Amino acid sequence: MTLFDGVYPFYLQQRKVSVFDISTIIVIVVFLTFAFSFLLIIPGIRGQARLYWTLRVLFSLIVGVVIITVQFTGDWETGWVRANTSYKSFSPALVSVDIGLHLGLAGVNISLRGNPVDQVNETINYNEHFAWSFDADYDQSYSQGLERGLPSPILYVAEKFTTRSPCSMQRQYRISSHYASATLWVAFCTWLISNMLFSMPVLVYGGYMLLVTGAFMIFSLLSFSTVRNFPMCLIQFGTATLHTGYGGSFWLTLATGLLCFVAGISVVTLHYCNLDLLKTLFDLREDKAEECQEMAEAHVNPHFVNRRLFPSQPSKLNPNII
Hints:
This protein is 52% helix and 16% strand. By secondary structure, it is an alpha+beta fold. Strands 4-3-2-1-7 form a five-stranded antiparallel β-sheet. Strands 5-6 form a two-stranded antiparallel ribbon. Helix 1 (22-41) packs antiparallel against helix 2 (49-69) and helix 2 packs antiparallel against helix 7 (248-273). It is elongated and about 75 Å long. It starts with 21 loop residues before the first helix and ends in a 13-residue tail after the last helix.
């Protein structure tokens, strides 16, 4: 059934949430499982070491979950605009809608929300995802959107990111996103190495690897932000213009990277200035080793030792007495 030739008012939609998707939820669930498992063993840790262990483990899990999660989120750069625009091709009807653009490392999400939602006998509430990862074909996704008859505002914004577009926005964002993603994976590897060094324990080198982790997270932000050095095409709907700015994932990555810098500098500084305090924070105090040594000592009955060293000789009977 078509409203106009080649325009489908009703079609199966392949939608994706603009910020969270299944991959993000899986990553969060996995790290929450690790956190819950650690909470089960907390009662077995005595004294102030329980607090120190909790802070270290939670900090490490937060850094790891942020590095992995931002790979799949779609709010590295976001923008909204309200405009009166045509809803379908070959239709003179205008609708009042909010148009959103959400850019992530794996692709772009375009949202269309009616204001109000119910207009022209339809519910206007769409969110379409167009991927530009290595195993995805953006132009093919755009062509499929044309065949499915997506609303005109979504197709207009999506067309800006095709390879045939003179704006070259897809090339700019795709290259910067791929480098940012690769840099984050390196940061994830250095995060794993830092955890191994802290557990060995080689504390100062673990602090150095935390600094390297924070550096690679900052490098990923610099890689993604380089796209703003190029002139961008305007996305206009009449007199309204869609502008974008850095989103939650960008600022979360920045905050986590700075937190890694602070933690790494603190560990290195304590190593050279106050090693005893650093050992206390990591539960490596010398009094603990002495306590273990004292527990290993045994109290032996000296009478028992003498009997073992000088065993009693069996008595010999004098045959003359008998």
